[in-house]
Amino acid sequence: MATQSRMDLAKAKSEKVTCLGHEFENDEARREHFTQRLREHLADPSFRSTPGFPQGSDEDIIKMSDPPYYTACPNPFIAEIVAEHGKPYDGSVDMVEPFAADVSEGKNHPIYNLHSYHTKVPHKAIMRYILHYTKPGELVFDGFCGTGMTGVAAQLCGDTTAVRELGYKVSTDGEVLRPDGEGGWEVFSQLGARRAILNDLSPYAAFIASQYNSFDPDDYQENEIIDRFSQFIEEMHPSYLTAGPNGMSDPTTFSYVIWSEVFSCPSCQFEDSLFGFSVSDGDMKDKFDCPNCKSTLKKGDLERVWETVLDLDGTTTLKEAKTKPVEIVASLNGKTKRYPATQYDLDASQPKRNSVEIPDAEFPHGRQTRKVRNGSGISKVHQMFTPRALTFVGDAWSACLSESGTRAGRKALFLLSSAITLLSRRERYRDGTGKGAQSGTLYVPSLQVEKFPEDVLDRKQRQFSRALFNSSEELSTVNVGSHTNLATIPDNCMDYIFTDPPFGESLQYGELNFFHEAWFRVGTSIPDDCVMNYVHEKDLDFYGETIRKSFNEAYRILKPGRWITVEFSNTQASVWNAIQVAMQQSGFIIANVAALDKKQRSFNSVTTTTSVKQDLVISAYKPNGGLEDRFLQGQSVDDTVWDFARTHLKKLPVSKIRNGVVENVPERDARRIFDRMVAWFVRHNTPVPLSSAEFQAGLAERFPERDEMFFLPSQVDEYDKKRLQAGSPPQRELFVDDERTAIDWVAEHLKSKPSTYQELHPEFTQRIGAGWRKHEEKPELSQILEENFLNYDGTGPVPAQIHRYLSSNWKELRNLEKDAPALVAKARNRWYVPDPNKQADVEKRREKALLKEFETYRAHRGRKLKEVRLEVLRAGFKAAWTERDYQTIVDVANKIPEDAWQEDERLLMYHSMAETRLEAAG
């Protein structure tokens, strides 16, 4: 195998290569040509001023890059790649429904596990979306690409085995089939690789993405750079020796060393390692006795002992938590032994450093870095390693960087970067062994595990060389820069977008990636990092605005009529709403929200009490131009309302089947369609011409309704067929947490059972208990009834809604005239849902009352209101927007708790757009 690998490598070096219309003698000539072109771009000050441009010298950026496929800066070759491989816009391919099914894919896959990162979406999950929305050869974009799983997924859409692993069938002519919900199979896609354009703000993430998308296991079977790692270990051999228990055996190589921070007892100042205080039989105890004074202690009671160490320059000093080796694990006479560390082991851990590639890099000011400084006193990256590990990593990294212009060097760097955390002090001790670093943090534990590097790297090399996975750099292009400025990508060129944006404040990517990027000497532009971070004064407004600008760019580069899928995991409603509002402000129209279960949860998710088990996936589309053109060409506003409704209904899933049961499609609800229509009109700075009730009445006149969902005439037969096969209507789940959902619950109840106040009140009271929104004023049932429904007072004929209910449930009331005394007596004081003809009048009456109350909010002076009615704010903001009174929206928002309007999609949209209009006005 090794001989064959060398032959393949020699062949690759001699084979001619064609790239972007140029023919080269070999791949190295290709890289040399495009590297020179990249140098010319880097010499241009305007190129370096691009938002999100990384921190680093020209030479360091070039060392990381493999142009034109990957550049550790904005990729100036993307336009050429799009021109060569992109396809012209074809409106005939737009007729595709959103991918409406929920997806569940685990993370424990050999490809997924090759290289760790703070967060990833499993490539198998992304494949389902790409197969649904695209054809072979089309361009897929991911602007927050992380490790490039979207690119991997795009390429594997051409791998028959990978597609079949999804539960799909592949025919002999390349058609991809999926279950049709009726026991059969339907063709929905075509086998074939798609091309990916990937972007990330982090040079480190983009480097991983570039390597995932140019992966060949043969590169790791025989690699002269990786072979040199063993040479470095051999040169440091004395440092990895241990003398055994009490120095009684011949020195042997350890498997790993347990290091412990040193603490003192608060009662007697006795000093010992945390290991000595708290570990017994390999387990760390929550409570333990001081060996000296016998005081019962917990870790939090102990006082950390500090020491002064020399910095890399040999003169400057640094203060850090004192640590020492406390236990050795080694194989002695064929058996694994554990024994206390000795002075011999401490001396062996301090070798002389030779490498110049050890970064003298101070962690930036931030949330995660502050925790490390305050905890272990670590302020620089090199302090994350024991002296012995630092020496080895420095030598190995230097060898990789010196050959980064070669494929072998880049592959060795990829492998080493996957192991560097395992070789650091971030490796935790648990249950007697190492348990990996704590994901999503820079946490340095008090009990650390230093592993023998040859064991780590051998394991990694086996993992990489045995991966049953190949990908080609020719099918993926990687860019480093801010998603808010994708200047190197042309307009209307992408066929599909899948993206996984940052999760508010849960992960501080720029700070976390600094640990690796310091070694590359090319770092993230942290001011452009799209996160919430109180240390950097990045609040929800910053996050929302950055996300909005990012979606503006996504909208610009996506072809009309095509789809974007946004995968998102967050526990805060305000951040979830910021994402949705930003998408709609950018012009996207949301068509579906589904769930993505990644099966394995991160540390932050597991320990956060408000965590969610499933990520949410938003499917949205860019209007195909017809609706926009007709509106701009002078189509009346009223006609545009129904033009929008028809266009939108065409994009929505007709049905959703799960386990043979037809489910409700929330986006087909009349009020949800109204919300999308309002967002579209607000974005176009046009007053909404209809009230919700008028819009709902118009929908009922123009479109077929089934199970409280609206369809186009061409869609309803398909839904009826699915509904008939399922045998039961879809069930709607109503969770009451604010006034709007309380109204919905009352409406659902009264539709099936017109009731008196006394009959309704007990159950209503139970419904508005736990789970109510924090700043939402709880309404009285009487107020909800009076503002939204009608009451029969016994005057005139009994309304049809009440008559149907009474005659169906009381035999003696059947076949009576509507003014029969017995029927009137039973119907008196019952509340009921008005029919569409009267609904508009009820709506107007209600809106008048809401606007009257809104005036009290506008006139309020003094402290912020603690509780408000969101329905009042919605009506007031809508009226102010219609009157172009943007200042009122902003002023009233300042009088109420931020959470109240930030956690409501409509209020956040009005507020965000009002601020934009005010800023534009000067």
Automatic annotation (TrEMBL):
Which Pfam families has this protein been placed in? N6_N4_Mtase
Q: Which reaction does it catalyse?
A: a 2'-deoxyadenosine in DNA + S-adenosyl-L-methionine = an N(6)-methyl-2'-deoxyadenosine in DNA + S-adenosyl-L-homocysteine + H(+)
Some GO term, biological process aspect, for this entry: which one?
A: methylation
What's the EC number here? 2.1.1.72
What's in the keyword line of the UniProt record?
Methyltransferase, Transferase
Boundaries of every DNA methylase N-4/N-6 domain copy: 110-157, 495-623
Tell me if Cytoplasm is a UniProt keyword of this record: no
Enzyme class, spelled out: transferase
Q: Which terms does the record give in the GO molecular function aspect?
A: DNA binding; N-methyltransferase activity; site-specific DNA-methyltransferase (adenine-specific) activity
Protein family (similarity comment) = Belongs to the N(4)/N(6)-methyltransferase family.
Designated name of the protein: site-specific DNA-methyltransferase (adenine-specific)
